Amino acid sequence: MLISIASGKGGTGKTTLALLLATAYSNITLVDCDVEEPNCHLFLQPEWQNPSREVTITIPHVNSSLCNGCGTCSAVCLFNAFAISGKTALLFDELCHSCGGCLLACPKDAISEEQKNIGTLMIGRAAAHPGIHLVSGVLQVGTPSAVPLIKKMKQETANLTGDVLLDCPPGTSCSMVTAVKDSNFCILVTEPTPFGRHDLELAMNITRLLQIPTGVVINKSDAATGDEIIEALCESRQIPVLAKIPHSLSFARQYAAGHISDEFRTVSSSIWNQLKTERGTTK
Amino acid sequence: MKELVIVSGKGGTGKTSISAALAFLAPQKVLVDCDVDAANFHLISGAIIRETHEFKAGFEPRVNEKTCTHCGICTKLCRFNAITNGVITTPLNCEGCGVCAFNCPDHAINMQEKQAGHWFVSDTRLGCLIHAELGLAMENSGKLVSKVRQEAKKIAENQHLPLIITDGPPGIGCPAIAALSGASLALAVVEPSASSMHDVKRLVDLVSHFDLPLAVCINKSTLHSENTQDLISWCDHNAIPIAGQIPYSNIFHNAVQSGKTVLEMPENSEVKDSLIKLWHNLAARLDLTD
Ligand code: SF4
Ligand code: SF4
After folding, report:
1. What pLDDT score does A11 carry?
2. How far is CA B224 from each of CA A91, A183, B197, B275, rounded to the nearest angstrom?
3. Distances (CA, A) of A140 to A120, A146, B229
């Protein structure tokens, strides 16, 4: 079963929940799709299996001895990745989407394709929790899109039989969608504040668009003010609240120090039980 | 005119709460929320939208069913598996590259500009705010970030306001790049936690790419004093000034709950003093006389 853990925004406790769920279960693959800022490895101290692999994308290469600067490539590239300078075409590869349009259009056959490195993919077994397999990716600083790297990481886990947890990137844009897409269930993590409600609503719109069964976990659940602000939204959208994780200073301190506290072990096993019911319906 | 951009390697470090506190303290400014993926600044500042504008970016294909012969060339050429014989089967996969349109032998496909979101000008208790909302599952957040910054500059110029305070987007990807380029000062909000300290190092790499002045604010500094010490020595070692340290407190949470800035809350002078100190440090760095 492929379970994605997402939230409209960072800092709501996605990684916390992913780690809680992973450590409460044996034989699980955790995929850290937050490739801009991967953090799971900080808690799991994995022994990486060698070698870590470079992930590449395909970009065009201009053969300057064939190119006459006619400008066709820059006319067809809707991402403005080409500029013509004098008698030759210049590529700004960070704008390229690897569509191959320029290659098809160049009348001089001056364009071929080559590979460009955008990040690395690592796989390892957690030293701290041997039941956990970690797939982690690191995007090269300055690479605008994380999408190709996330796709590669998901392919990596496509043939696995056990449960796979995806720690998704924050937000509701293309990289979050790439990560959440095709999952059997999506857990949205939120906090009971107006910020949390606003971001949760955006994230719910995405899982509805993708038609993925969804549940909500309320982090830093607040006994004093109550969680109505989130519960009302979940009720109106008919999305179940799977669990509540109360705010705990000792938990926050341990987390800050890089430890996964087992303070909320009962919460995570209750979430697993609910996911099992869901699994019955998906497989 | 100066622009202060508040960033953090990742969300949840308290960027928006600190931006709002600075917005409360700074006398004359324009405010910008660059988190176009999940904007929150309007919630804390009581924004009332004055202007709504459409944001168009990128392209999407439109197939003319009358001229399409379902020859299948588009299916063969599309590298993103978005189209099958003239039918856009998986619109979410479409990158808007136009390969299908440009290579259709019957010219049955047209590329049209795509509605990608909205941007707004709002009146708030703390001043004029420019913010935006990117459409669902859209890319181009970098472009929208550039757009709101550009509009904020226009307003600041027209009204002779000396400062723009920008609540930056999380992360180090294209929106962060778009928010930082050309700023006068970047303020990185960091927590003394293993993950936040890891993230800030990647953020510093990015900021040094742009050669921008950078200062750090340690939020929740009392959460883990050992990490806070490490963070301070790391900053010293890298010659990054620490503009402020804010102690851990529930007041941030309570302020968000009541839709206020921390400075508008009744209690906790310790946190307030630390924020006032932060503002004075930043004002001095930005060379804002009074
Ligand atoms: S289309 Fe081909 S020949 Fe024309 S400018 Fe581009 S690369 Fe050069
Ligand atoms: S492959 Fe596509 S996106 Fe890249 S330069 Fe060529 S036309 Fe532009």
Report:
1. 74
2. 47, 36, 12, 19
3. 8, 9, 29
CB contact under 8 A, B97 and A101: yes
Model confidence pLDDT, tens digit, residues A32-47: 998 877 888 888 888 8
**CB of residue A81 inside a 6 A radius of ligand 2:** yes
Residue A126: pLDDT band with limits 50, 70, 90: confident
Q: Residues B41, B21: contact at Cβ < 8 Å?
A: no
Q: For ligand 1, what atom is nearest to the CA of residue A66?
A: 3
pLDDT of residue B48: 95
How confident is the model at residue A183, as a pLDDT? 92
AA letter at A249: L
Backbone angles phi, psi at B112, to 5 degrees: -120, 150
| Torsion-angle region of B160 (φ positive above 0: left; ψ -120 to 50: alpha; else: beta) | left
Asked if residues A132 and A126 have their Cβ atoms less than 8 Å apart, the reply is yes
Q: Are A209 and B170 inside 8 Å of each other by CB? A: no
Beta bridge partners of A57: A116
Q: For residue A70, how far is its CA from the centre of ligand 1 (angstroms)? A: 5
Q: Which residues of A touch B58 (CB under 8 A)?
A: 78
Asked if the peptide bond before residue A51 counts as cis, ω within 30 degrees of 0, the response is yes
- Mean pLDDT by 10-residue block, N- to C-terminus, for chain B (290 residues)? 89 87 94 90 92 94 95 95 93 92 96 94 95 84 92 95 92 84 92 84 84 92 90 93 92 87 87 94 85
Is residue B10 within 8 Å of residue B173, measured between CB atoms?
Answer: no
Cα A218 to middle of ligand 1, angstroms? 55
CA closest to A259 among chain B residues: B194
Q: What is the pLDDT of residue A282?
A: 56
**Per the CB < 8 Å rule, is A42 touching B172?**
no
Q: By the 8 A CB rule, do B198 and B10 touch?
A: no
CA distance A157 to A56: 18
Partners of A175 on chain B (C-beta within 8 Å) are 173
